[in-house]
Write a structure and sequence with these properties.
Layout lengths: L2 H22 L15 H23 L12 H21 L1 H16 L4 H22 L13
Length: 151
């Protein structure tokens, strides 16, 4: 743990989180056909970031200092996850939320830990299906559902 870096990161994330919360207040509170407005996600994301940054800042004062070892950078997993993110963004509307999110999560989980493919498969399926159900059915929001050829 590099305390100076962690303190700077905590202050930076606190600033970004606060700006998210402030910025979300300027977004319309509802959208056409949806009970959940576009301001909800940035507001909660900003609040979560503020809480985590406060915790990180607190830990820099209470944590023990450790001698950090020089770690090698892993470029291949980084490039795979960035490419998967770009493909996810480009195909979300075409393929739909559930399938695209499932594939994205599975690829990312496998990039991080190759051996547990069955666990990755189950978690990706449950997460994408549960989030879709909660957002669309419970909160009455809108997400791109299934591909056009499924309808």
């Amino acid at each position: 743990m590099d305390i100076k870096f962690d303190r700077i990161a905590a202050i930076l994330f606190l600033t970004v989180g606060t700006l998210f919360v402030i910025g979300s207040r300027n977004i319309a509170s509802s959208s056409y056909g949806s009970v959940v407005g576009p301001d909800i996600f940035p507001f909660f994301l900003g609040g979560f970031l503020v809480i985590l940054s406060i915790r990180l800042f607190y830990e820099t004062f209470t944590g023990k200092t450790e001698k950090s070892k020089k770690e090698t950078l892993q470029y291949k997993p980084f490039i795979i996850i960035v490419a998967a993110t770009l493909v996810y963004i480009l195909t979300l509307e075409i393929i739909g939320y559930v399938i695209t999110t499932f594939i994205f999560l599975f690829v990312c989980f496998q990039t991080m830990e190759r051996a547990k493919w069955l666990t990755s498969l189950i978690i990706a399926a449950l997460f994408s299906g549960l989030v879709y159900f909660l957002f669309v059915e419970v909160l009455k929001g809108t997400l791109p559902g299934w591909p056009i050829w499924f309808n």
